[in-house]
């Protein structure tokens, strides 16, 4: 009944790392360990309860036999007081038998009590080990989940900056540079076109001013 806990303690204490290395899912394996330990505790509790019930039954029988011994002695005294020696003798004979029975029941009760006490102690030890393993399981579970998360993050981060991603960024960079070059070329062409138009506009404005200046000179007689 208690052998499994010894095995689990050994596994958790000295072989867990190797076991978890081979396990597909360490968290599930740890949970399975705890379920098996809980099942063993329930089995042990049932065995202890049965032994305690046996102890109580033997204790009750021993108490009843002891009471009967006293009762037969009282009856023998009462028979003698009544002058009935035959009845007193029969009461004392039964008292002897009950005394022997009480002694046997006392031995059986003592053994049952010792066994029940030993089982109680074993059960308490199992529960202490279970709680210790539960705390350790929670710690290992957190460590396993943390390690798995770090592994996933490392895989994701290793993909960033990889050959495929880097080549994709380089292609997009070249494409953006082409767009920028096309925009600059378009702006240059537009600037040249505007400069030509501006020169003609200036020429047109200068022609108008010259005509107005000539008209004004003529009016003043200075021409």
From TrEMBL:
Key word Coiled coil present: yes
Keywords recorded for this protein, A-Z: Coiled coil
Disordered, as annotated region: 137-223
Sequence ranges of Basic and acidic residues compositional bias: 168-181
Sections of the chain in a coiled coil: 27-61
Classification via InterPro entries: PspA_VIPP1 (IPR007157)
Keyword Coiled coil: yes
Top-level taxon in the UniProt lineage: Bacteria
Family stated for the protein in its record: Belongs to the PspA/Vipp/IM30 family.
Name used for this protein in its record: PspA/IM30 family protein
Organism this protein belongs to: Bacillus salitolerans
């Amino acid at each position: 009944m208690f052998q499994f806990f010894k095995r689990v303690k050994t596994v958790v204490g000295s072989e867990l790392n190797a076991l978890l290395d081979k396990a597909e899912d360490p968290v599930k394996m740890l949970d399975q360990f705890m379920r098996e330990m809980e099942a063993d505790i329930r089995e042990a509790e049932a065995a202890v309860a049965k032994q305690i019930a046996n102890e109580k039954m033997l204790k009750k029988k021993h108490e009843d036999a002891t009471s009967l011994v006293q009762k037969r002695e009282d009856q023998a005294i009462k028979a003698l007081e009544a002058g009935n020696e035959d009845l007193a003798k029969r009461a004392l004979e039964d008292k002897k038998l009950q005394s022997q029975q009480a002694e046997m029941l006392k031995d059986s009760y003592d053994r049952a009590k010792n066994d029940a006490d030993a089982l109680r102690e074993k059960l308490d030890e199992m529960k202490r080990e279970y709680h210790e393993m539960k705390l350790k399981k929670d710690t290992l579970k957190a460590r396993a989940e943390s390690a798995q998360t770090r592994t996933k993050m490392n895989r994701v981060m290793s993909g960033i900056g990889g050959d495929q991603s880097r080549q994709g960024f380089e292609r997009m960079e070249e494409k953006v540079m082409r767009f920028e070059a096309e925009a600059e070329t378009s702006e240059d062409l537009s600037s040249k076109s505007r400069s030509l138009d501006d020169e003609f506009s200036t020429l047109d404005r200068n022609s108008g001013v010259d005509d107005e200046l000539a008209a004004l000179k003529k009016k003043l007689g200075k021409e």
